[in-house]
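Dear colleagues,

As part of the handover before I leave the project, I'm documenting each prediction I ran so the next person doesn't have to rerun anything. This entry is a single chain, and its sequence is reproduced below.
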Amino acid sequence: MIRILVVDDHPGFRAGLRTLLATDTGIEIGDEAGNGEQALALVGQVQPDVVLMDLDMPGMGGIAATKRITRDHPHIPVLVLSMSDDDDSVFAAMRAGARGYVLKGARKAELVRSVEAVAEGGAVFGPALAARLSGYFSPAERGHSPGERGEPALPGLTPREQEILGLIARHLTNPEIALRLGLSQKTVRNHVSAVFAKLQVADRAQAIMRARETGL
């Protein structure tokens, strides 16, 4: 079973989500929180496999809560489930450390797949958001080359993450990376997810594109 902590300020939405997921035997709701403060108080007790996080809530919002959870509990991934589909919200969530972003209103199958993928160490974005991210990182869409405007080529990546990105760019799989670096596959999955979030990409193909653009 994948245990999730649902963080959303609307009791009706939480109840609907509980009903929706009750028919899927692979996911259970461990607890619920109405804002970021409650989520921080519960996450250590519940030890969920995934935190399902709304963004707009009274008190501490989802971005601040995601930052705290990913800092204090790096082994617990955060999947954003929000009505907001603007670029600023998506990228703010990714910079905060969210492993995925799904829009409210997504079909049950998409939500379940997203929870499962994030629980396994992947990074997930809904189809519409993934398409927009792909366009955002296309050189033709950006209209400038890497390094222009003073942007860092690989913002925020640790030396280990840069090393793993280089191996991804050489088309090594996670098990192959784990074997080469002497790490567990779970550790590699976590590093790969962190790379995706920091580079604001949705999959390995986009990560490879970024790596090649920066000359890695």
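The chain has two domains: 2-133, 143-213. The radius of gyration is 17 Å.

All the best with the project,
I.
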